[in-house]
Amino acid sequence: MKSNGAYVSALFIFGTVCVAAPAFAQSSVTMYGIVDAGLVYQSSQTSLGSTVNGHSNVKLGQNIWNGNRLGFKGIEDLGGGTLAVFTLESGFNLLSGTQQFANAGFSRQAFVGLTNASYGTLTAGRQYTSYYSLVGPYGPTTWLTGYFGAHAGDIDNLDVIYRVNNSLVYKSPAFYGLTVSGSYSPGAVPGSLSRGSSWSAALRYSSGPLGVAAGVERFNNSTLGGGAWGANSTLNSGGQPGVSALTNGYQTAAAQQRVAVAVSYAFSAAWNVSVSYSNVQYIPGAGSAFRDEAIFNTVGAVLHFRATVAADLAAGYSITRATKANSIASAAQYEQFNLAESYNLSARTMLYALQGFQRAHGQTLGTAGAGNVINATATIGDGFNAAPSSSRSQFACAIAVSHRF
Question: What is the pLDDT of residues 66-91, one digit of tens each?
């Protein structure tokens, strides 16, 4: 593995070559990026799965409004309205200068494909699912961020955290406002087409002030019958979707399935509202540490107000309810409130502030799964998944800056 210095040097050389190379007709490569960081306060912090009482914490945070990245996009006109396209996008830790994920040079996105205005776009590589790409823009994170505003623990995967390796994605052109998309990733497990695989399908309708989207996605464990998610998993680098205080006891699921519907409506140039609903299922197998299917239903709403050309305000509320299962007598429930304020200093630089509060009720499963019933604890958005509250309540706030280049 190259050192971080060698890795950065390689990116710099690649970018220099792209800029210095002769410009061929109707072909281009663009380098771009985002840097985002600020000061974060949370009222209670402990480690995921820990029973130790947490304490308040003030720290520097990053990837708050936007994920830090350095990327390259390229197109080549092949004639007849068809273009070859590629994207290579590297995530990094702004506070330490290290890669976002170990041994993953272009961890955010890495794909190549063909696009045609009449037939759509087909790409292959590490990509977002069709479910997220079409439903996500009408979800909570557009104006509240995923760090603070994703539904509790990002249970429904409507934030940009998760990409799928080895995936094929097709997206149609818009036809009378309707767009459809499908994605599939083979599991690469010898002797099985389903183990370790994932698939997704979604559609979106947009007309004037109205937007409506619906999608479904399923992830199958590469380990037969459940158990720890194996190395052949096609999920986010080294992990699985939705690991948080909500779902820590269900990590041995044989499969995860999500269905979501979202609606957005603009009342005027200044006011718009979005409402979303999701149903998430953690499905056990023979090797799972829990026996009953765990189901989470979430309803959320976001109100956005453009106060001036440069200033935006947003408020959100969501409630996530689990079903009674696995010897849980009082099903878990998570209520979350969010506020967001942003001001654009220029076309590229934004100052912003965020506030979030969550209250948890009922019970869930602890790390060991079956038989380990614990009190549900709060975890705002998805920025605190690894450091949730040790109690039923959590408050957090941040002030930060984001710059695009």
Answer: 999 999 999 999 999 999 999 999 99
For residue 36, the one-letter residue type is D
Under 8 Å between Cβ of 320 and 331? no
Nearest to 326 by CA among 350, 354, 293: 293
* Alpha-carbon gap, residue 67 to 73, rounded angstroms: 17
- CATH code of the domain in which 86 resides: 2.40.160.10
Long-range contact pairs involving 113-118 (C-beta distance under 8 Å, separation at least 24): 113/84, 113/85, 113/86, 113/169, 114/78, 114/82, 114/83, 114/84, 114/85, 115/82, 115/83, 115/85, 116/80, 116/81, 116/82, 116/83, 117/81, 117/173, 118/81, 118/173
Overall number of domains in the chain? 1
**DSSP H or E stretch at residue 9:** helix 4-20
Are residues 217 and 199 in contact, defined by beta-carbon separation less than 8 angstroms?
yes
Angle at 235 between CA 229 and CA 238, to 5 degrees: 65
Instruction: Name 310's Cβ contacts closer than 8 Å, sequence gap at least 6.
Output: 343, 344, 345
Angstrom distances, CA of residue 65 to CA of 146, 229, 324, 349: 7, 29, 35, 12
- pTM reported for the whole predicted model: 0.89
- pLDDT tens string 320-329: 999 999 999 9
The answer to whether residue 341 sits within a structural domain is yes
Please check whether residue 162 lies inside any domain of the structure.
Answer: yes
Q: Rounded mean pLDDT of 106-122?
A: 96
Element at 6 (helix H, strand E): helix 4-20
Task: Please say if the pLDDT value at position 223 is more than 90.
Answer: no
Per-residue tokens: 143? 């104006």
In 3D space, the residue among 399, 400, 395 whose CA is nearest the CA of residue 45 turns out to be 395
Q: Give 142's strand partners.
A: none
